[in-house]
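User: Before I run my own analysis I want an independent prediction to cross-check against. Here's the chain; please return only the structure tokens and, at the end, one sentence I can use as a sanity check.
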Amino acid sequence: QVQLVESGGGLVQPGGSLRLSCAASGRTFSPYAVGWFRQSPGKEREFVSGFIWGTSHPYYADSVNGRFTISRDTAKNTVYLKMNNLRPEDTAVYYCGTKGSRFTDFGSWGQGTQVTVSS
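Assistant: Structure tokens:
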């Protein structure tokens, strides 16, 4: 029943930074896990970062590890993705999704936010 809205995307030069936000509707937001994914035209959606809600232990794709940081603000029902040292290959539509349990696939996608890295 939760609805997710991504924001914060835009056009940035290589080496620049952006912070994406994923705001969830509803009075409470406590999924099993939250994740950021991205998709470029002609490519499959790929995992970027995520964490199990109860532990907040983060996971990162090798391609972004050391450059991106995932965090949350439970009072605002919002998850963030801080992206530093952006590269052209980071260009994609970024989506936020949730897992209801360890046995459930990520879903409940938002509409996505476009990130374009170009000089």
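Sanity check: The chain has a mean pLDDT of 94.
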